[in-house]
Amino acid sequence: MTSRTKYLLDESDLPTTWYNVIPDLPEPPPPPLHPGTREPVGPDDLAPLFPQALIAQEVTQDRFVDIPGEVLDVYRLWRPSPLYRARRLERALGTPARIYYKYEGVSPVGSHKPNTAVPQAFYNAAEGIRRLTTETGAGQWGSALAFASATFGLECEVWQVRASYDQKPYRKIMMETFGATVHPSPSKETAAGRAVLEKAPDSTGSLGIAISEAVEQAAADPDTRYALGSVLNHVLLHQTVIGEEALLQFAQAGDTPDVIVGCTGGGSNFGGLAFPFLREKLAGRIAPVIRAVEPAACPSLTRGRYAYDFGDTAGLTPLLKMHTLGHDFIPDPIHAGGLRYHGMAPLLSHIYELGLIEALAVGQQECFAAGVRFARTEGIIPAPEPTHALAACVQEALRCKETGEEKAILTALCGHAHLDLPAYAAFLAGRMTDNELPESVLAESLAGLP
Amino acid sequence: MTSRTKYLLDESDLPTTWYNVIPDLPEPPPPPLHPGTREPVGPDDLAPLFPQALIAQEVTQDRFVDIPGEVLDVYRLWRPSPLYRARRLERALGTPARIYYKYEGVSPVGSHKPNTAVPQAFYNAAEGIRRLTTETGAGQWGSALAFASATFGLECEVWQVRASYDQKPYRKIMMETFGATVHPSPSKETAAGRAVLEKAPDSTGSLGIAISEAVEQAAADPDTRYALGSVLNHVLLHQTVIGEEALLQFAQAGDTPDVIVGCTGGGSNFGGLAFPFLREKLAGRIAPVIRAVEPAACPSLTRGRYAYDFGDTAGLTPLLKMHTLGHDFIPDPIHAGGLRYHGMAPLLSHIYELGLIEALAVGQQECFAAGVRFARTEGIIPAPEPTHALAACVQEALRCKETGEEKAILTALCGHAHLDLPAYAAFLAGRMTDNELPESVLAESLAGLP
Q1: Residue B6 in contact with residue B85, Cβ under 8 Å?
Q2: DSSP H helical ranges for B81-190
Q3: Which residues of B touch A372 (CB under 8 A)?
Q4: Which helix (H) or strand (E) holds B244?
Q5: Could you say which cofactors this protein requires (chains A, B) (predicted)?
Q6: Partner of B357 at 20 to 30 A CA spacing, among A9, B251, B287, B431?
Q7: In this model, does residue B2 exceed pLDDT 70?
Q8: Using CA of residue A337, residue A340, residue A343, residue A346, what is the dihedral sign?
Q9: Would you list which residues of chain A are within 8 Å, Cβ to Cβ, of chain B?
Q10: Does the pLDDT value for residue A398 go beyond 90?
Q11: Is the pLDDT of residue B1 over 50?
């Protein structure tokens, strides 16, 4: 073990393939179903929404998928990303544990999202598509797709969840600086948005609603496609570049992770870090515990139902077998921690059902306390999302302090909080409450399952 | 020349000394004077404001000053910083020039400022100081000192220029997340602030006023010292870590800069990049043109007077020989580009007088246009300050396109704009005007010179 603070890879060590975990699983995940026929959807069903290359990646059985040179060229603007040893946090906690974090905040928009936005924009541009539509919640994904669209000369139109649109004006400016158009969602631009506004004129929105709006617009125009920032197999595939790099960096460090902890909203950041390590675990080369952490306000893995549900509120998408809170679920707008999607990636849900990963939910005060502690020791103010993982890291590191175990903990610090600072202001001013999802709200939302 | 996008150094290549350009200059810079006696100030005059170690660095004749191990430990959180080749911008401009940028936005607060905040906090803590006071304009410096103070267990109190305090709420939250206390300036906390508010209750403030407030508070308490984020010799000294790294990275690239371009407010970012290259130039090993770029709204080098003036508005500091707009100067609050200090670093002013560097002023619309162009090609949204340097880079690259010259241009991208996005919103909405300093305002401000 060296005494280094960070482990950097050379550009020449940038992975040239993404890793597809599906062929390595003991059984394949259940397929998406057509909502009318309840038969597995085929490529033709998805063609109005996605380019052929991404549809192929969605169902591929190849273990490794080549990353195009044009995508690598853009990745090189910030990749390989650093792996840090959090020595100052370890000292502050007085733990014998070694805490590592893989930092994705070095990307142009400050999160892991460009890892998939860039290939999605590339494949669309390569197939002659002119415009992309998407949804965004906290704004990380919309920013990433706006950046990626600028890079490949595509127009980009974003529906941003109203609560976030109003609370996070800087995100909109970032998207516009990259040349995108941003609408609050629900909007009057789409039938799906108008239907919601008719029933609830003051709706604060949800990712499910925003997805309906973006999907509706894409399906209506042959030159437009839709891009999703998480949940689907091809998105998780692209994010595995994180875990592949981290494997190389652990080799550099001469260490092996005992515990891997990541936050889960749709599941792409977590899957991106964890799947390459899961491959090594399934092959018997390492034996880490792999733990997903979600907000108590939006606990799809720990309290949702494993069932077929729509990916969006209006029911425009195929049915996905996933842990879901119900596609009508509207997260409490006071929840500041991101990770607000009603469902969990089908692939991750399947892996959870197989018992290959653990999950827990954490309240937002504990998360922001961990975020402040991290900022004051490591210098980086974490985005609200990864504070969930940091809270679980702190729990684990303090358990190690009690037991004396010298575990190596790895977490994905998937972004910084520069554009989410008002949430920290609320926490520091004592204006933040914990916001566990009430049983009655969950029951009502689950009642809407198809 | 390789085809790489970025040049990274290993942690072991982090410079272990700062470079002091003074002994290499053909003549020494004029000393600071006591405003009463007009005699050079001695260490005792500065002791109420600064720790002994920094006073010693302010006047040292050593060419190289060791960086303490505790400072290197913190530098390693983000240093060495990357040097990028801006290939995508070059292609967009169609220039034969090679454009390189040294990116300091990877620091915890997103700018070069921690390079000096960290050693300043370290030396104060080492001498038993309990609290630091400072001023901040756009907020980059205040954030950096808040971070550095958290790192070494110091309290930190920041006076933030009112115009910026109101326009940039995120900066205040960042400082508070690191544990600092933030006041708008002018404030009622100090005699200097109250004096300004009495004459101008709606004052939007200036760096000169905020410095007066922070200095007054530090001088009144034996456990408190003051920290300045630019202008002084020791600050420029600490920033030379930028240029020392860039020299190593140019060697990696197998290239040599023909033109070095940096933005100047107080001068520390510019000096930090340029001085190590100036050493090599004075030694006859390279021959780059070195060019300072300042805002047309605050043009101290190009339109200020080279004279002894106060560093602050209330006249609490020693007199410094520098290019100054007059210490009463209040920048137009519509100026969004930062770099709003009335004076230029005495060391840089002296070097300019010696004819060793060039200077030009640029209007803010040209700057933000360069910033947007950079964002859409390179992915990083530049802080308003370095858009000045980018505008001059674009000018140079387009001249190369006309002449066919294959020059290598190096610039300091000293920070990102995540907390300055409202300025981009104003530019994109066409609400930004150019704001050259009117001759009459300059004349009035210069009339106040001591």
Answers
A1: yes
A2: 87-93, 114-126, 140-151, 162-167, 169-177
A3: 177
A4: helix B233-253
A5: pyridoxal 5'-phosphate
A6: B251
A7: no
A8: negative
A9: 4-6, 8, 10-11, 73-74, 76-78, 84, 88, 106-110, 114, 147, 150-151, 169-170, 173-174, 176-179, 372, 375-376, 378-381, 418-419, 421-422, 424-425, 428
A10: yes
A11: no
**How far is the C-alpha of B371 from the C-alpha of A215, rounded, in Å?**
32
Domains, chain B, ordered by start: 6-13+68-110+232-446 (3.40.50.1100)
Higher pLDDT, B163 or B256: B256
**Is A173 in Cβ contact with B376 (below 8 Å)?**
no
**Which of B168, B175, B177 best tests the A interface by mutation, with the highest count of A CBs <10 A?**
B177
The values of phi and psi at residue B286, to 5°, are -140, 170
Taking CB atoms and an 8 Å limit, are A178 and B150 in contact across chains?
no
Q: What is the pLDDT of residues B94-111, one digit of tens each?
A: 999 999 999 999 999 999
Residue A116's identity, in one-letter code, is T
Residue B333 pLDDT: 74
* Residue B429 CB neighbours (<10 A): 10
Nearest to B446 by CA among B307, B315, B316: B307
Task: Look up residue A29 and give its amino acid.
Answer: P
Mean pLDDT calculated for residue range A128-151 = 96
pLDDT of residue A1: 40
pLDDT in tens, A57-105: 999 999 999 999 999 999 999 999 999 999 999 999 999 999 999 999 9
* Nearest by CB: A422 against B114, B173, B376: B173
Residue type, A322: M
